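Subject: for your reference before the review

Hello V.,

The reviewers asked for a structural picture of the protein, and I figured it would be easier to keep everything in one thread rather than splitting it across files. Below is the amino acid sequence we used in the manuscript, unchanged from the supplementary table.
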Amino acid sequence: MQHGLGSSTSDSPTLPDDRLPAEPRSLVSYEFGPFLLDPANRLLTSSGTEVHLPGRAFDALLLLVQRPGALVTKEELMSSVWGGSFVEESNLTVAISTLRRALNEDPQDRQYIQTVARRGYRFVADVRIKQSSNPAAQREASTQAANHAAQNTTQAEDQGHSNAQVRIVHYGDSPTTADLITGDARQILQSRFGNGGPGFLLIARPWAWYGHNGVDLSGDGWTIDTAVGSMRVARYGLGGAIFTGSTGAVSRIKLQNADTTVVELQYLAQPNGGTVEVVADGSSAGQVQTAGADGESSAASVNIPPGTKELQLRVTSGTVKLFGIALGREGRGLTYDSIGLNGASTTVMSRAFDEANFAGALQHRRADLVIINYGTNESTFLNYVNTQYEGELRRAIARVRAALPQASILIMSPMDRGIRGGGNAIGTYPAIPVIVQIQKRVAQDIGCGFFNTYEAMGGEGTMARWYDAHPSMVAADLIHPSPKGARIVAQALTSQLLIGYERYAQTHPLR
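And here is what came back from the structure prediction:
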């Protein structure tokens, strides 16, 4: 079908007790029976007493309580808890047994975890969602942006809408480039709403640390131009980059989860555009002819066999200009696109993307929720933040809203950013709280959702605590979280989205 557009770790995150903020900042926790499950602090208590749980068992319990009454298959649990790594089913059995002992379940009366023979498990106790004990963090973690996505997701669970898809497109800077935070958010939400596939990928790696959880990407023979690298107005498609290749250029994509059945190639047409062959596990699955009206953004889909583990995109003739590929699958589910540009700021979205081309790419992707997650790179320039940043943010939001008037927009603030001072003490970059307040004010003014990442992770001084943790949860640059730190932020974000979903679902029950 062809038409016009118009690395993670399987370790569980921990937050050492001596590094917890004095005032709890967990945005949501789950109560059942005498138990309280606190995801942000990786803590399970029974009537106020801590219950020890190994990391895998904790992750399994969290997934189950987030879906009370629903069947969670063995495959979903193993994929979510072990991060796509190959494990035997016996590992899951051990984790569930550990859980049952921790919950003091009666073997004759499974009051918490019910086994569904040969299929999986179901959490059968009543679960109550408990809001943050920090009122400011609770208020600022707005969930109104989840409403539209929640509506589509509710429809996806309706028997009459069994093939509905929900799409989230997340724009960000270097952590998003490496699929930190976004990769965990994808895993959590797909475990809840169904796997719609890996989502959008660039054709090759513009930066060594570009990545996508569950996918190994490499390429040869491409000339790469990115919106950050050139900082000039140009047509960059959805992902902020364009790849030019001639006969012999190739991209190799290894799929850890073999969860793709449809490959959509997004490209810039040219009168003498070349041909791209899609190869699935060594066999040709189809070809895409990129010839067309000069400068027209287009896309073509190629079906591949279920279970495909390795893809190749080969330029077999002429010269092509490609934006990226979208990896999906048939049936209902959720996709979470991580659009990360290393070194990016809000200005990339507000200025560098050709406006018409960007709008066409967003419309073609049919996003239900667009997350705008910039601010860290701007924080170096306090004068710019005070004088120009707000205007650029409003311009970026206006572009997205003009392209997708029915979609929801969520402004996601930057994380804390550390700076070393006298005596090597670590503080917070002065511009970070200024940026957060500007984002909050603009979101309220325009009517967007706002998620205060800075407060959710602990506020001022968080990077100092994270750096001193053992193991450290942020790199030595005091900017980039470790996989453990990223997981904590992802859990905070998705918890708020799930609260928004549950609220919507309660007033719009399935038919």
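For the response letter, the relevant points are probably these. The first helix runs from residue 55 to 65. The chain is about 30% helix and 30% strand.

Happy to draft the paragraph if you're swamped.

O.
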